[in-house]
Structures are given as C-alpha cells and as structure tokens.
C-alpha cells in the first residue's frame, strides 16, 4: 500500500519557487477529506502561501503507516486515543500529535425511550467492538452516572474495567458501523458521530446523552498526526494554524451542523 500511495503523490512536502510559499500533503478520509478539500481551495490557504494536496486513504492503518514512514507527511482523521492504540501496536514508527482539531461527540441513542432516565434496569446496550470506541462508550456511560469504572481504567479499557453496574446493564458488542441498524434490536446504542450522521442522526439533538469538551474527553479529541520526520516541519505547523482560521471554522460548523466541536488545546493537555 505504501508503494501505491507514494506513486499517487507528486508533491509530498516541499517548497515552491516562492521563498514564502510551501506545499504539504494531508492524508485523510471520510468527512475529514471534505473539510481538507475545502481548506485546500480556501482563500485562507492562499493567504498563508500554502498549497495543500489532499490524499484520501480509506484504510486507517495503512494511512497511519504511510504517515509513519514519511510517505504522507501529516494525516487528519483520528482521535488522540486511536493514535495511542496504533502506536502501541506499531512501536517502530510511532506518530506524534502536532495539533488538535475537533471533538466529534459519541452519543447514546435509542428508538425505545426519549430520555436517559427512562432507561430500564437490565437494559441491553449496543457498544462498538473496536477498542478506541468501546473505551469511549464506557467512559460516556460513566459520565452519565450509569456505571463506575476501576481506577486503572485506561485508553484501552473494556467491559472488564467496570467497577459497578447498579442498573445491571447488559452489553452487546457490535460492529461500530452497524449502529443505526441495530437500534431496534437493543434498548440503546453507543455510536460515533460519523456513524450516527450516516444514519441520519444528529448527536446534539437526537442522543440521550453525548460527550462534551472536558478533561474527561481530552484523549478523544481529533488531531493532526505526523511521523518523526515531519513533526517539526514548518509547513505542517502552518497547516495547524490554518485550521484555526475563523472562516474555515464557520464552514465546518455550518456544514456539519455543529457536530464537529472545535477544540483549541495544547497537545500536552491530551496526555493527562
């Protein structure tokens, strides 16, 4: 895959004939690809003298591998916790978070009840089976007061990390992408915002409860990630600053109905 990606890149990262102009390739996927194509065409990018090449790679692991080996200098699609899980599995080519972008809230949804207080004792909750979203889901249930978690619960925690479950909730692990389709089969389903949107749901309006920007969700913030070769590159730093442009943030808010919540925090805050 890395060879195929490399063949598709004319410019990875470099400097044009103008002393103040530069170019950078961003690897991305899904709705993030839409965002970065908009940024690439924006007047803000022109004013920053930055040419952005958007490379869409649908396989998350392959995209991270391409960033780790320097084929794609920087990527934008994952949460800080997802990157941590990837780094644990790929210790020789770890990625570094170089900037925060947004929190895309996970939510708890139901077709059977309208309010969280109506959730019955012994309810069955659909929860994503992938490690990062499983952990996020359990943390959200804790924040909602439905369960408590053991003190050593961490970024790769699972149901074995539940300390108390007073409502006697039952958990059914599901393929995260099937969330909207299993709503009728269980009492409630934990879904990422991307999956919920694909199912016609708005996390801010349709969920029983959802994540909010707080210390509790620091590790779930989406990031720009780079490999060791490019983590201190000037063009990458310029890209991080460009994302903060007010006009670009206005576009993201309007296009995604406020469900990609801008997060301006230092990377050091995500590690706590």
From TrEMBL:
InterPro entries in alphabetical order: Lipoprotein_NlpA (IPR004872)
Superkingdom field: Bacteria
Coiled coil residues, start to end: none
Recorded GO CC terms: membrane
Signal peptide segment: 1-21
UniProt membrane topology term: Lipid-anchor
Membrane found in the keyword field: yes
Main localization category: membrane
Keyword Heme: no
Subcellular location: Membrane
Keywords: Lipoprotein, Membrane, Palmitate, Signal
Family: Belongs to the NlpA lipoprotein family.
Protein's UniProt name: Amino acid ABC transporter substrate binding protein
């Amino acid at each position: 895959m890395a060879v195929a990606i490399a063949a598709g890149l004319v410019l990875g990262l470099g400097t044009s004939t103008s002393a103040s102009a530069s170019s950078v390739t961003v690897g991305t996927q899904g709705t993030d690809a839409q965002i970065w194509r908009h940024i690439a065409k924006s007047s803000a990018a022109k004013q920053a003298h930055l040419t952005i090449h958007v490379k869409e790679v649908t396989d998350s692991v392959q995209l991270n591998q391409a960033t780790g080996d320097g084929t794609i200098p920087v990527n934008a699609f994952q949460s800080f916790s997802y990157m941590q899980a990837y780094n644990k599995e790929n210790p020789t080519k770890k990625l570094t978070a170089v900037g925060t972008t947004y929190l895309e809230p996970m939510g708890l949804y139901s077709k059977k009840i309208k309010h969280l207080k109506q959730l019955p004792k012994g309810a069955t909750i659909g929860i994503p089976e992938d490690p990062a979203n499983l952990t996020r889901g359990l943390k959200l249930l804790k924040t909602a007061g439905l369960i408590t978690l053991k003190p050593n619960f961490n970024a790769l925690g699972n149901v074995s990390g539940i300390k108390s479950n007073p409502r006697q909730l039952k958990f059914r692990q599901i393929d995260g992408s099937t969330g909207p389709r299993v709503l009728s089969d269980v009492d409630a389903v934990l879904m990422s915002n991307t999956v919920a949107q694909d199912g016609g749901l708005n996390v801010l309006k349709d969920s029983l409860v959802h994540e909010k920007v707080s210390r509790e969700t620091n590790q779930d913030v989406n990031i720009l990630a780079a490999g060791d070769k490019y983590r201190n590159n000037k063009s990458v730093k310029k890209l991080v600053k460009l994302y903060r442009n007010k006009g670009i943030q206005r576009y993201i808010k309007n296009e995604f109905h406020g469900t990609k919540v801008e997060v301006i925090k230092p990377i050091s805050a995500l590690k706590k």
